């Protein structure tokens, strides 16, 4: 148990964790209310409009990736978060006011969705990178996993409470409640001790996005991770569309939709806590989780009753969070600290920016062919993601015969590199420049000495 929560040894992380839980509960309440308002109050069960709202909300991270990553690397991340969290709180108050006064329209909601997206575009990379600033490098993967656990603990509570609040009080008051919960995160940020944050190298070179792209392009492992996450993010992680339309198919109201979101979080929380127990993030876990997501999604699409569908969502949530937590932890712990903000901005652009591509398609498929067809499409994307990861493992030489067993295979996270060959190819150390991508000192590399040739050969 102490191994699972080892990041709590840092005061700053403890404060952050509990502030994040409260804020995330409000965030999930608001997300549930926004989806339901668009689907049932501003339209007549129009999943396409819901997909357009998601596209506007998650599109800015992709459009602004060149700016947001550089901001996260160049400026004080705690100050960035104070600004973004305050902005999000003000936006929630504005939406609440329009809903309570019955002035809200679909075009206005689309505008606010875009504003939420812009604020989150700056908030997400700074928040993700700030997690590593609060703990030592050996605890970074654990901190990322616990951060995901915090997010999913809130997801377990927020949607169910939000659904009940919509029925009992109205959607406008849910936005009021979310605005109040932002105060928890703002107070936590003010309590954090700046002197105890981990020192991080500054990288003030121009062309922030170009440097980040060159770095990722020079890391085939990161390229594979990004492609896998993009496929599932675009076509498989449109849960608001899937769960809300399935709730309507089973003749449920907002509270039934909220319960489905909370059930999904049961598996998500379990996946996050198990990820916290691992010593480091591994690509093989990401690959297996992607395959599990594909299978679980396709099975869930075949369920004939509300209860059976809810049960399968536990496995969907487990595989989803295992995949995302592993991918996030791998990116953070194997990336050059000076470029972490920019690389994380690219990662968040892939995760969140995939939604503007996939959500409208998923919404259209749900309208035209039914929600089960849209869910199945997401499951196929998961299986394709697994195939890409497995193919890369085979191509990169990470799958090989075990040394102590003739007929057994082992999967290695690193490709063997001969020391002699490496020295032959690079007699002098490489010059680091904008034309030559920086290689992360934390990228795991396993070296093997060259064995002498047998005299009989």
Automatic annotation (TrEMBL):
Broad class of the protein's primary localization: membrane
Signal peptide: none
Domain Major facilitator superfamily (MFS) profile: 1-399
Transmembrane segments: 12-29, 49-68, 173-192, 222-244, 256-276, 283-301, 307-331, 343-366, 372-395
InterPro entries: MFS_dom, MFS_trans_sf, TM_effector
Membrane topology: Multi-pass membrane protein
Pfam families in UniProt: MFS_3
PANTHER family named in the record: INTEGRAL MEMBRANE EFFLUX PROTEIN-RELATED (PTHR23513), STAPHYLOFERRIN A TRANSPORTER (PTHR23513:SF11)
Name of protein: MFS transporter
Species annotation: Microbacterium panaciterrae
